[in-house]
Each structure stands twice: as structure tokens, then as C-alpha cells.
Amino acid sequence: MSSQAGNRQTRPVVEHADGTTSKTPTRDGRPLLNFKSPRASQPKQHLADMTMDERIDAVKEMGLPAFRAKQISTHYFSHYQTDVESMTDLPKDLRADLQERFFPHLLTEVRRLRTANGDTIKFLWRLYDGALVESVLMRYRNRVTLCVSSQCGCGMNCPFCATGQQGLTRNMSAAEIVEQVIRANQVIAAGELAPAPTSDMPAEGETALGAESDEDQGETSEATVDESGTSTSATGPERVSNIVFMGMGEPLANYKRVMNAVRRFVEPAPQGLGMSARRITISTVGLVPGINKLAAEDIPVTFALSLHAPDDELRDEMIPVNTRWKADEAIDAAYNYYQVTGRRVSIEYALIKDMNDHPWRAELLAKKLNARGRGWVHVNPIPLNPTPGSVWTASEPEVADEFVRRLIDQGIPTTIRDTRGSDIDGACGQLAAAD
């Protein structure tokens, strides 16, 4: 165990037999977990909440012809327009009604932080009810990745995570999730993200967020700049190419709305954004029923399990949901995802100094993964981006290197994850907590 075990400043909240809660150094209570959103209203229904058939029904209810649904969908999903007044092919006398029915205001930008070289932009958004969420836009040579939030806060209570310490306010709607991508595409179109570099930003041996599997390396869309200065890709104007559900919230605890958002991402235009499902990563701390449900969806997203410890003794404290579904159960569910979908799984592992970065834990992790088979998994260790006021901090570089070496020696494909945004409170939840 950690040499700092006696003085950790941040611990999981536990519930005691008398109903009280505390951040106690003893395990005499159960970790506080929240799988269901508190009773809270959702925003008004938005175009992105609806299927195309539902949009057609909605315009017909307004007394309009069905083709108007396709028109407004094209403006939103192909041109990233959210103001109906800019949709000049719509009659002026219809625009106010269409704005109110299909485009209620979802996100208000509160703050934007940009790294010195402009390759990473972090957004703080205020939702209609005042809740704050974050998303992070990241430029790489051959991809643009957006890390999106799926909940306002999080109910998983992980003590090293800024969001986990905020608790759960409510689930986000499908449209609130989609709107993060639309707004990011507007930023890219305005030239506010640094242009593509001539070489990959991650150092050799590292992997970029949103590029978890080398199966997807052939699906690149390298950006260029045309004569007018507009950034473009092989398929048209440049846009977000990869989405990772690694922002605020536990995606599988908001399963229905997250999957509705995923459908909007992968449906062909103008139904949706027409993205590749393989370029969408859904990460979970280990909600086993949700993992198995995701495997049965027949949507080949990339799946990532945030494991962070191979042994239950440590994982019970680091990932409180481990008290419900143990590490081996989560790994079994991840392996089942691979068997059902044929998609290689990512294991996310935050390397935390003196906590989970011991060589023997690397070897135990390799043993457990190899016991299920070979070629089904890839491990992505990432040095922890520490949250303010906590002694949980990143592993020393030489310790991280040894951890990776032990995994590779056991035949486990492993690459240190590229870290981004440490100078702009890059860990999700830090910006919202500070506002």
C-alpha cells in the first residue's frame, strides 16, 4: 500500500450504518454510489434528441411539409448552425417557431482555456439549469478529438477524480451531449484551434487520446489548409473526427441518453453527423451490466475500461464501484465485449505515485489479462493529472517506465497515453469545481 496511506487528503465518501456520511480513513461504512440521476428536469426537447422520423412528425404537427425536417437537420448536422435566422432557405415567417421548437438554447460558454500552442482548448459550459460541465478539444496530426461530458457531476465517488468528488447533479440529455460536438465544430470552422502539425504530437511510444486501438490507424483524416486558409480534410471542411466519453460523468450510468447521442454521431447526414463508430470511445469505471448491454448494441464503438488497479483490496478504495462488481468481473465483461464485437478493448490505468504503480501490480494486471487470451486488449497507462488539495499525484517517470516495461515483457501491448492540458486544469471537473 501507499506510504501516504495515513495522510491522504481525498478519500471516497462512505455511508455509515446510522445514515451519516464522511470521508473516513476506515472502511466501516459502504462507499456512497449514485447510479440514478436525482429527480431533476431535463432541457426542452431539441432536434438532436429526435430521430429523423420524430423530426418529420414534429414539423407536420406544426402544419409544415416533411421536407422542412431534412432542411433544418442539414443545417445543424452538416453546417453546425444553431441559429435559425442564419438558415436563409427557410421562410422568414417560420424561423421563430422553428427556433423555439427545435433549437432551445443548451450550452452557454462560461470560460475557455487554451494551451500556449493552441492545440488544446478546454470549455466550461453552463446548462439551462445552471449546472456546469466541461469538454476538451485536442488537435493531433491526423485527428481532432473531443472529450465530452455525459453527466453533471458524477456519482461514482472516485477520490482521485475532481468530478467524482462533486457528486451527481443530473444526467445530461442526448442533445446536450451532441451540442458539445457541434460547438467544437464551430470553433474548428472559425480557425480557433491550432492547425495540424507536421508530425504527431505524442512522443514515440505514446498514444493520443481517441486513438486507443491500432485497428483504427488506417482511418485517419489528415487536415490540410486550402488557399483561402480554411482547414479541410479529405471528406470536406475539417471537424471533430474522434469522440471520447471521458469527460465529466459515468457514461453507462446515463445509458439511454448516451446511446441516443452515439446514434446521432454515427447516423449519416442529415440524420446525424455521419461519424465512424470506431472513432467513438465509451469509457466506464466498471458497470458490468452496462458493459454487457453495450456489447449487444451492434454499434462498433471502442470500449475502454478504467481499471486503475488489478487487485480488489486497492480498487475497492480507488474505484468504489468495485465493491459492487469486482475487478475480475469488470475484466470478464470487457473480454466479453471483445468476443461479441471483435473490437479490441482498452484498459485505462491512471498511474498514481506510491499507490498503484508498483511493478508487482503491473505483473498481476498482465497475468489477469493474459489469462483471458492474447490480442484482445491494449493497456493505456496515463500519469495522473492531480486535482487541487489532494496528495494523489502522478508517478515518477522512471516508475511509469518500469510499469510499462513489465506489461510489455508479459506480451501486453502498452503505450503511455499522451497527456494534454495540465496547464489549463486538464483533469475533467477541475474547472467546474473552481468556478
Automatic annotation (TrEMBL):
Cofactor annotation comment: Binds 1 [4Fe-4S] cluster. The cluster is coordinated with 3 cysteines and an exchangeable S-adenosyl-L-methionine.
Residues that, per the record, bind S-adenosyl-L-methionine: 249-250, 283, 306-308, 385
Catalytic activity: adenosine(2503) in 23S rRNA + 2 reduced [2Fe-2S]-[ferredoxin] + 2 S-adenosyl-L-methionine = 2-methyladenosine(2503) in 23S rRNA + 5'-deoxyadenosine + L-methionine + 2 oxidized [2Fe-2S]-[ferredoxin] + S-adenosyl-L-homocysteine; adenosine(37) in tRNA + 2 reduced [2Fe-2S]-[ferredoxin] + 2 S-adenosyl-L-methionine = 2-methyladenosine(37) in tRNA + 5'-deoxyadenosine + L-methionine + 2 oxidized [2Fe-2S]-[ferredoxin] + S-adenosyl-L-homocysteine
Radical SAM core domain boundaries: 140-423
Region feature Disordered, mapped onto this chain: 1-48, 194-238
Binding site for [4Fe-4S] cluster: 154, 158, 161
Pfam families (alphabetical): Radical_SAM, RlmN_N
Active site: 134, 428
Compositionally skewed regions (Polar residues) per UniProt: 1-10, 220-235
Subcellular location: Cytoplasm
Extra remark: Reaction proceeds by a ping-pong mechanism involving intermediate methylation of a conserved cysteine residue.
Similarity annotation: Belongs to the radical SAM superfamily. RlmN family.
Protein name: Probable dual-specificity RNA methyltransferase RlmN
Gene that produces this protein: rlmN
